[in-house]
Amino acid sequence: MLIFNKKEYGEEIPYTRDPILSIYRFCNIYRELDRQTIFFHTLLKPIESNFSLWLLNMLFCRSICNTETIKKIGLLSFDVKHNEQVYTKLLNLPSPKYGNAYVFPISVIQKSSWPTREKFFCYYYPTAIQEIAEYIESFENISVTSALRKILPVFGFNVKFLWTEVLIDVAYQFPTFIDLFKEFPCGPGSIPTMKLLNNKVTPEQTVLALTATSVKDFPYLTLNGKPIKLSAENWEGIGCEFRKYLNIRNGTSRKRRYY
User: Fold this and answer.
1) pLDDT single digits (tens) 133-172
2) Are residues 98 and 137 in the same domain?
3) How many domains does the chain have?
4) Is residue 85 part of a domain?
5) C or N terminus of the chain, fewer CB within 10 Å?
6) In which domain, by residue range, is 82 found?
7) Does the residue 257 lie in any domain?
8) pLDDT per residue over 29-84, tens digit each?
């Protein structure tokens, strides 16, 4: 967070004397600071009153994971002809057209009726999303873990990480549906960190316990003068980044340098 603040205020590098943090890239602690997240949420703000359409396109945006692609092809609708146009644009775009974040495992759809990402996104999503939107609209402050148990069987494909990302987005714009301070799935990137902190309980329990902590002198984001507490989603992400830090220090990680 201190590095982020120094960058925002235009200070000169190096932002830290830490030899790893000064050279390699790490994700922001707060999703609110992520450029792609800001772009997607700003883009979809005008359709927020139509939850099923908003959800369809948030799922679409997160699946593509590339703001430039979305700018070029536009959004989906529940109109087949419109989606055919989006499909053609997406299909004809030169690579790379998808982001490099691992959110969509292509293997789960290869034996389906929509075996390519372009077909799956443009033709399957519009048929599946309305029922799921109704499910989510019936939620009352449930955890991401509980929401995943309800959604994935209806969706019919095991894309747990993708739907976790989308449910976080839902929680940010529709906090009465999803509560990010309740149980949150701990991914493989974060599990080693949570076990390092406490190997006597599940990683999910450790993540949940961390939400009750208040870090002294931490530069929290603020809203109306009040600090924005770190949710289970934030702590799970911190666990992932800390594991990357340790791996780089131990020479066992892919090294993403600043550009």
Assistant:
1) 999 999 999 999 999 999 999 999 999 999 999 999 999 9
2) yes
3) 2
4) yes
5) C
6) 34-173
7) no
8) 999 999 999 999 999 999 999 999 999 999 999 999 999 999 999 999 999 999 99
